[in-house]
Amino acid sequence: MASENTVSNTEQSQHSPELRIVLIGGRELHGKPSRRSATGNTILGKNVFDTSTRTAQSVAGQQEVHGRQVTVVDTPGWWWHYPRENTPLLDQLEIKNSVYLCPPEPHAFLLVIPFGSVFPEIFKKSLEEHLQLFHKTVFDHTIVLFSASTPCSHERLNKYISKWAALRWLLQQCGNRNHVLDVQNRLDSTQVITLFRKIEDMVAKNGGRKYKVDRATEETVEKLKAFGNRAANRFAQVQTQRMEFKALTEGGLTPPAHLRLVMVGAQWSAKSSAGNTILRKHTFAVDYGRTTSRCKIGHGTVAQRQLTVVDSPGWFYNQSLQDTSEMDKLEIEYSMCLCPPGPHAVLLVVGLSSAFNASNQRALEEHMSLFKDEVWSHTVVLFTRGDWLGVKTVEERIESNRRLQWLVEKCGNRYHVLDNQKGGDENQVTELLEKVEEMLKANRGSVYEVDLGRAEQLEARKQAQEQMAQRNMQRVQRQKRVLRELFRGEAQSLNDMRIVLVGRTESGKSMAGNRIIFAELFQTSLMKKEFQVQRRTTACEKHQKNVAGIDLTVVESPGWVVTNETANAPDWLQSEVLRSVSMCAPGPHAFLFVISISTRFTKKDKEAIEELLMPLKERVWRHCMVLFTWGDWLGDRSIEEHIVSEGEALRWLVDKCGSRYHVISSHRFGDGFPVIALFQKIIDMVTQNRGRHFTTEEKQKKQQKPVLPWLARKSTLTEEEWNRREEQLIKRMLKAIAVDPEEPTKPSMTKMGSFDGTFVPSMSGDISSEVGSVHWSHGACAKVSEWLSQRIGSSDITSGFGSMGSSASYVEKMDVLSIVEGNLQPADRFAQEISMLDTVHPTKALMDRGTQRRNSF
Hints:
There is one protein chain. The protein folds into 3 domains: 2-213, Rossmann fold, CATH 3.40.50; 221-450 and 813-849, P-loop containing nucleotide triphosphate hydrolases (Rossmann fold); 460-695 and 751-791, Rossmann fold (3-Layer(aba) Sandwich). 38% of the residues lie in helices and 14% in strands. The strands form 5 sheets. Strands 3-4-1-6-7-8 form a 6-stranded mixed sheet, with helices on one face. It has a 6-stranded mixed sheet with strand order 10-11-9-12-13-14, with helices on one face. Strand 16 and strand 17 (550-556) form a beta hairpin. Helix 1 packs parallel to helix 7 (189-205), helix 3 packs across helix 8 and helix 15 (452-486) runs antiparallel to helix 25 (842-849). It starts with a helix and ends in an 8-residue tail after the last helix.
């Protein structure tokens, strides 16, 4: 204590009488709370800022601390993984407004980074864009503050900084000014005093100059005021509109006893969580990753109303309709058919945790075109993640975004905010249902009627695809068993494995390469078409690693870009694919065509692959396999269903590769099995190729003595010709087996794991990132190492085929029993209707009802 007093007394004679500080920084996507507010409380020595809720508005706190009058401004955080265009304009303006809250200007910006957190290259890009909200001299007034929850030594700090190149860059921009603050230890006043010293030293080195507040800051304040005024006007208009709708009750229109709701929206919009909040029970699966790959139905009784809620698969949040897989489009359109004769309301779910920008609007508008134009008159915009608003109103958010204005006006100014964190609050659900009933009154009780013919077509298509997928699965299993017998005991012994990755941009090549080699060596991006300036891979990239005595070599070739006109595969790209062969001399064992399940494989992709492989001749296909990435997107569907539904182009590629395919999840770091299964399939393919790897060199045609004497009288055949005839014989045999009826055996398959639901990755190699390096599981790598050491040289062939998807064919079933929960007893009519929905197919129910409308019950 004596030493602390000595420091304080010395400081009182030298320190500045006043310090003005602005806290800035981002938020991680993994659910970790921001430490900026806690940092501000530690500096001020008291709880000024609320750490339990998100800071949505810049707020200032003042306190006398160690003889100084200290002002600290806490600001909203941006997502570290996102560019600035994904940050809501309201948040951007509040961040800019922060310097106005500590007049005349701040002495310092403290860029708060949780100690020990990841800091990949993509964080640097996000930081650069967000700091453009301030004057270009902001780095001259910034100190990097590492917020810690435990004491941190200089050795630990240096080791942490050395891991991240982007962090070293940041410190260099800030003149290597940094400080560590233990926010859990407020009793240690020395750490705060030392921070104040560093701020004063920085101001002195700047010649006493403080950060300059320019005219743009004052304009920011005016914008915020304007948004507030317009928000008040919109709220008043909505309330007037609601009163007019309620007045229609006097005309004899009573709300139905049973409401049918269909939820549509982008992936990661918290759609399934919203369904659970509405039904007030856990009906729809909510987990990290994609849990809704097929339409699901839930029933319940809430606020004296019987409800049927349909959850549909979400589209990728910024992906065009053209790039959405055929299976997803089919399921989204089919959602309207599951509550005949049609839903009373469509809930269009939009998350508030990020900006609704141009790409989001385009994706939403295009996917809503899957329905009839009349859908908009039956749609309510359901804003989720209401906690993100903080002290702001949803009207302010709408008025600050012209695209949101377009959306709510497209829906007749009908919108509602749901906070899924407050699932026990029935009032927010009751108000939503009241708004739905008011819309029904405005629509004179009409529902969104499903086209009967179209519904029947969708159902027939779904059934046909499921049956075809099941047949294909059985065929592949039969072929697998035959090949197992043909090559029993002939497995090749490999001391190395050489792989070439081929695929379009953002297909997952880099991430797949890292999974295969069990190291973060290929540069990857966590985003999908997010940053405007992207690093395009224009040359092959090669990495090697020894695992369990086996030398693994992986070469990633550049990807082609698919546009509306063509798949761009220029001459230089063809040359790079040729070069990839020489980079893994004497030749690759496998070419893996990397295809993302979340994106449609088009005819243009097929043409690009054909063009790229043309110089390698037809024999290259003996060494090819399809590697599907982003297996999480399958959900409970099998990969065979995906292949069938995608159409002719993908089926052609799979057939061209001899029905060899595999699925991996690029974010399942803790399980080595998917990689082991991939290695086994590559070994099986090498075995089928008699141990030969691919080469572009023409081998000397070696004479081979005929096995049977009578063949001596025939023309002498080369080894290459014998091999060719053998392959033709195998192909003819497999083709014959494919049409031979046989009882299916249960395939060895596992359901894909899922990944962080708030994590929106792009598996392209366009932007460098080391973020995955901290996630690689040593246990998974050890599992692969053990398998390689025991199996790679001695195993019999097990399978050159198969999938990692779910094998069961899916039949949507409604849970009738779940509608009775606790003391809630549904009305008899509701129970009868649900029973009918469960036992009669939706299309059949539509046909039975004909075109009759049901306005009330």
